[in-house]
Amino acid sequence: MQMTTRQYARQTLASYALFDNARQRGQSPQHALVPLVLPFLIGKSGQQFLPDALATSLQPIFGSQFTAYAAEALSLGLLAEGYLREGARNGDGALYFYTEKVDELRVDESVLEAERDISIIIEEFLQFLEATSPIFRAEYNFEEWKNLFIQWATNVDVNDKDELKIWVDSIVDGNKKERLSISGNMDAEERFFGIDKHIVVLFASFSQWLSRERIDLFAKVATLAEIGFLMDLVSELRDPVKPAPQKIDLTVVFDGPLLLDAVGLMGVGRAQAASSVLSLCKKHGIGVVALQHSIEEAKEIVQAVLGKAPGQRYGMVADTIRGNIVSERRASNFVAKPDQEVKGLGIQILNANILSSIQSKEIFNDSEIERFASGLPYYESMVGNRKARDAKSIAYIIRRRGGNYTSDAFSSKFLFLTRSSVLVRYSDVYCRRKVDGWPSYAIPPAVEMRHFSTLFLLAYGTSEGERISRGELLSSCELVLKTSPLVIKRVRETVEQLSLFSTEQLDAVMGDPVALREITIATGNDPEVVTAENASEVARIIREAAAKDERLKAQRERLAVSIRHEEAMGAALADSERARLDAAKAGLQLQRGAVEARETAAVLIGQWHREADSYWLIVTILFCAISITAMASVFLNSIQINIYVKVFVWICVSAIAIYSLSNRIIENFSILSLRKIIRTRVVASRAASLPQGGVRENVEILMRAK
Q: SS3 of 93, please?
């Protein structure tokens, strides 16, 4: 069943959100693929995990070549994450079943999170489009732009595999068919099957601009591209990638164009991607070598560019020099001593006679090399010695493996790295059908650079893939935007008819990287777009080419001013409301403080009064006791009775007197005055020890009131 663009976008957004979340959690390598498949598992709780069935359900998004091998590669991560459980065993091994966790996935929420990111990107793209003003029609609504962008970002640098397979199979079988839309890494404008090639140019130029001006949004686009690389690799897997392999037995061989990537002569993106791979190889003990004929190939590519006048130079090396990414002198130095440049990167060089020194020459012998080379489906205009060189490189890999076959890339002994999907597919099909003893599960002798890069992500975790994915994304954009000689020729012929520019001015324009970039973007890198009817529009683009970046900058500044104004207004309103609330809060706090101070003062005075009353009671009792004792003594001395009777009578009279007087004297004003004096003195002494503030002031007020 074919998936619609909208369905594809929704599934991809869910994968994007889940994948980004997994990366932020720093999960292990075996989890890297899980987010890609989760949106397809909802409703499968309790069902048996069947690789064939899962592969069929995933083919609409991963392609028809997504097999049970690839589906099985996902089982480790699903099991580790708790989406699978092990059941009973049968003769073929353990059976696995989906757990209830697959029905707990909140895919709708994940899509909403991802929608916000993509919407921000498309809003920025529409501003870019307004400043670009392409001369071809690009009329889509917001939702259509979003769906197209997602489809492009997750298929960057990916051929339509079904057509590639049909085409290459027919060549290997000797039934060469007419070339379809597939062209390896040579026809970049035809690589994005199902998407208008003009739109591809717009998306590529926009992504390049993001990498310079909005690195935060570029990182989100790179995450989409990384998901695409994973999708592409998963469909090619013949064996699950083992997390962090302990034993690595691998040496990779760079082809000529990859050597140019590594030395920085093929653009910023390719240099970054190659540098990342070299660093990872060194880190994990993987050898990197180059054959002598590949260095010759790299040298000849640069030499061919330098041999032309600046206005007649085309291709990625020419664009890199023209854009001052590297100087012409730097390119000339590479031509003069390419071996030193390559060795400086830590790449070992093998001499030209390496094939004759390998003992296992009976494997892929010289006749086989010739047959392989004769069938390579390269354009005649680009052949040169390329067929023979690539055939020798493949022969070197096969002979060095010595008949040892494996499906594990990291233990395959030797791999030839290239960016040519045609060479990879052709060598794979050729070996499986034409080389005796070559098993169907064996990893091909050649692997695409992006697949090899993504293998590190699966083996060592998402942190290894982030820089690689950004480099590969930029590399693909640079490939799409490389200057086309056909476009430049058509533009020159058309504009010359208007007589608006002199020959010298046109020569200058054709050598100006900014003008060429704008011509490429405005025409969609398609010569058919340029006609006599829109010649004046093309001339306008040439005149205003240098001003485009300024227009984009002005647009961004206006938007930034508007955003800052809205933020300032919001902040002012928030500050005003905050000040009002703070004032009200302060008033309440003052009122509460005053009440608390009065209450505290009253409590303290009450405590101090009770303390003073204890002093007053002692004084009163002593006074009464002295008075009564004196009166009793006078009375008892006046009569003649037994001494014991006198004492008894004295005690009784004293007790009655004390009790009576202590109650009566309370009513006496003079005694109350004494009590008041004692209270006042005690409260005053205690209040003097209090700190200045509300409590002390309230104590003094209450003292005066009483």
A: strand
Could you state, in order of their start, the residue ranges of all structural domains in the chain?
5-104, 249-466, 485-533, 594-705
Residue environment code for 531-564, b if the CB has 16+ CB neighbours within 10 A, otherwise e: eeebbeebbebbeebeebeeebeeebeeeeeeee
Topology adopted by domain 5-104: Arc Repressor Mutant, subunit A (1.10.10)
The beta-strand segments (E) located in 263-382 are 287-291, 348-350
Q: Which two tokens stand for residue 620?
A: 């009163």
Q: Environment class of residue 196 by beta-carbon count within 10 Å: exposed (0-12), middle (13-18) or buried (19+)?
A: middle
Fold of 249-466: Rossmann fold (3.40.50)
> pLDDT tens across 334-377, in order?
999 999 999 999 999 987 566 666 655 677 888 888 888 888 87
Distance CA 685, CA 615 (A): 15
**611 contacts 675 by C-beta, under 8 angstroms:** no
pTM of the predicted protein model: 0.67
The DSSP secondary-structure symbol of 179 reads: P
Please name the residues in contact with 573: beta carbons below 8 A apart, sequence gap of 6 or more.
Answer: none
Cβ within 8 Å of residue 154, ≥6 positions away:
12, 224, 225, 227, 228, 231
CB distance 331 to 265 below 8 Å: yes
